[in-house]
Amino acid sequence: MIDMSTKLRWGVLSTAAIGQKKVIPAMQQGQYTVVTAIASRDLARAQSAAAALGISTVYGSYEELLADPNIDAIYNPLPNNLHVPWTIKAAEAGKHVLCEKPLSLTAAEAESLLAVRARTGVKIGEAFMVNSSPQWIRLRELINEGCIGELRSIFGYFSYFNVKPENIRNRVECGGGALMDIGCYLVHASRYAFQQEPTRVVACIDRDPQMHTDRLTSAMLDFPGGQSIFTCSTQMVPYQRFHFLGTKGRIELEIPVNAPPDRPTRLFIDNGSDLFGGGITTETFPACDQYTLQGDAFSKAVLEDTEVPVPIEDAIKNMAVIEAIFKSAALGQWVSL
Fold it and tell me: What pLDDT band is residue 27 in, cutting at 50, 70 and 90?
């Protein structure tokens, strides 16, 4: 059994915005997590972030952080192209690693981490915080209970507007673009709900003429149990919504990914009896921070020596689908997995 007084000691690689604004403050509220150090290649930037977040230890290089014997685990929110290299370095330093999504740039790159994990004995996980979210856990419960009959179709949208060339999400060499940044959630959600892997995919991509990133990507994933259709964009009105349709009903997630930590979230169940919404019932979930839950779930897995919420094996499968989507758009045809 876990010692309830035990907390995993975390170090953070870089002063990335997602870490400073969302993940670190959330993990500081965790039952099993304590953020004790942060590193940046710019010492002044690390000191500024540490002061704002109340972190006690600061390093002016990533290597110094990894060498700290008082750090048990690393949170890696570096740019996508640096995820695997620094996850490997952290693992080889004996640190468990929670790495931001997408874990890698390719399925093969993610697969290379299997040998690293086996050699070092540490735990490595991908930071899909939605897996720890009460609304997503409830979604799967409802599907498994047959609430909507047999799941047959998923459709989702995820978009925001950002045309800044210097932004990491708009740099091809860093693994930017809509599919890698937010489309990965749509792929992950589809696999999570169907609890299967797609057999083939077809996609259409529109790329920014200057930045060359995919700014509008739509795809269809063909699963043994049904189909998932989605659109993601980095140059469209901010929006996110998922619908899960079955033979007897429909479930809708209102704010599926960026659920607010200070407001309740809602899940809608529609029995299909009234096209004007008369057959909809609402389930409301109390305000919670899914990044806190994610950190606690990973830390608890380390402390109890159990499987992390999103292991490398799942990341490999997700990246295989993403790669197939890119390939389909380039070829203009269905691509089998």
Answer: very high
List, in sequence order, every residue forming a beta bridge with 203; answer none if it has no partner. Answer: 219
82-112 residue pLDDT tens: 999 999 999 999 999 999 999 999 999 999 9
Contact yes or no for 249/147 (Cβ under 8 A): yes
CB within 8 A of 331, min separation 6: which ones? Answer: none
Enclosing H/E stretch for 62: helix 62-66
Backbone angles phi, psi at 7, to 5 degrees: -130, 140
Tokens of 4: 């309830």
Phi, psi of 132 (to 5 degrees): -100, 0
Whole-angstrom distance, CA of residue 131 vs CA of residue 70: 28
Q: Enter the tokens of residue 53.
A: 């977040």
Query: Token digits for 334?
Result: 């269905």
The CA-based angle 243-268-161, given to 5 degrees, is: 50
Residue 230's nearest CA partner among 154, 160, 162 is 154
Taking a C-beta distance cutoff of 8 angstroms, is the pair 322, 183 a contact?
yes
pLDDT digits (tens, 9 = 90+) for 310-333: 999 999 999 999 999 999 999 999
Q: What is the DSSP string of 241-286?
A: EEEEEESS-EEEESS-SS--TTS-EEEEEE-SS-TTTTTEEEEEE-
SS3 content of the chain, % helix, strand, coil (to 5): 40, 30, 35
- pLDDT of residue 6 exceeding 90, the answer is no
Q: Which residues pair with 246 in a beta bridge?
A: 151
